[in-house]
């Protein structure tokens, strides 16, 4: 019995999904349900292929109340730039939550991941950054450096952005892009200590294996969103910084303790136990679990969850289907 | 930079892939490479969704020397038959082994899985069944009951087939289908003990949680392929049967000890250790590890591997691409 399956390309998906308040709301709903304990989210499937410098991650989650669930396949092949291809690509497959039937194949080349990741950063800033942010800093100069600042600016309309990266040219280019996208004064800042000192909100977006943000730099009224570490072996935040935090929030404790900043802190002993740690969805449900004063120092640790994928994919497909966009295959 | 992605439907894939000697050879090559230790195959990702009586499995494997690797997503939603839908469906996504770029989406509704599963059974029969099989028996009456017998008949052209199932009507229908497909005399046999007694080759294809094939029924010159158990909690072969086996072969030891018949035998203590157990690919490479005489009793335990999926998907896509079949989407 053939059924209609919708095929959507990145260009088509971009018509319906972008880094905006809708995306932040969608992701907030996914985290809230995740915190409610009703989401089914198996551990990430991961395959390393050292011979070609490649890796493949698969994420999924079933969220009660959503029409579908997504399975996302994200390959990263890090020799690709040498032959003119992006390192990362991938797609999401959306299934009916009632019957498991394939509904849609979203050939997004990682675009939906970019959006849902930035939206989680926007949500973290909304719930945890001080009310008044004059200056935002970003460490790292890739696609997420741009998108995280764009998302944060939606919820904290700061006046200035500082960009730090190992490569001064890339930092300048990133600052120029951010200025063009947000209309905010954005400049490269070669000294990461100064960047943190001058910012009330800092987003770290690097794939670093060694801390790029030192404990000594923390100051009252700072919020940090650390979204670079999503694998064992990555670490952006000095483990000693955890002793200075007033509030630490994980997107998912079970992931952060093995893949996020929490892993390094547990290993270094600056966090003794995960008891008492809140997840981002709990802060959505009860914002008093986030920042309590403008003087507190807060950190949100983002590793990326299958719940976000299911939420953004379900939204994207519903919008495209309503608009009649996409190729339909009878399969 | 948009790239061509090929979308292939089940009807299109059926033009190029079927249960035949080519499929058995493809699967044999995958198992041989798997046994060589060069295949990268992460543990199966599994998500249970009890509220809708659903489950989703994801399998993958990277096989050196193959142009691509597949990620297979297999949902099973067991309330579906009540609304006229099949329980299982799913698809495979094929990626370039060099760049990780999406090459093709194979909307096969589980057809390629059916073929590669039957082909593994055919391979097991080829390597482990006695040379002369007059009668083959099959326990279970579903799609795999039909396909396993079809595959086994390619390598052991038996004259008679006995079919046992809990439902006499389904057993009769399955026997009629087998007779029509293979031209062999096939009849329903209500007594499973008699079915085993009269057969030299028995394939078990049930989702049973309790042994359907008893240890007392084993006799010299019997080969059993057990392919029904692919989850913790399933069990087709009486654990006591393991004490009577001359040869036991696993498709993958790490899977069989948690998902296959080996699990129940280890639990019952009729197998003390997995030391010394061979995998099917080792028997491909050295057939002397299989059956040594017509009097031996042998068992092959099949749980299904991502290596088979990658092998069949790579073959199917290459054939369809050469023929110019499929829908091309620029994504």
TrEMBL record, chains A, B:
| Gene Ontology, cellular component aspect | cytoplasm
Q: Sorted alphabetically, which Pfam families does this protein's record hold? A: OCD_Mu_crystall
Q: Which InterPro entries match?
A: NAD(P)-bd_dom_sf (IPR036291), ODC_Mu_crystall (IPR003462), ODC_N (IPR023401)
What protein name is recorded for this chain? Cyclodeaminase
User: What is the species of this protein?
Assistant: Hwanghaeella grinnelliae
Lineage, opening ranks:
Bacteria, Pseudomonadati, Pseudomonadota, Alphaproteobacteria, Rhodospirillales
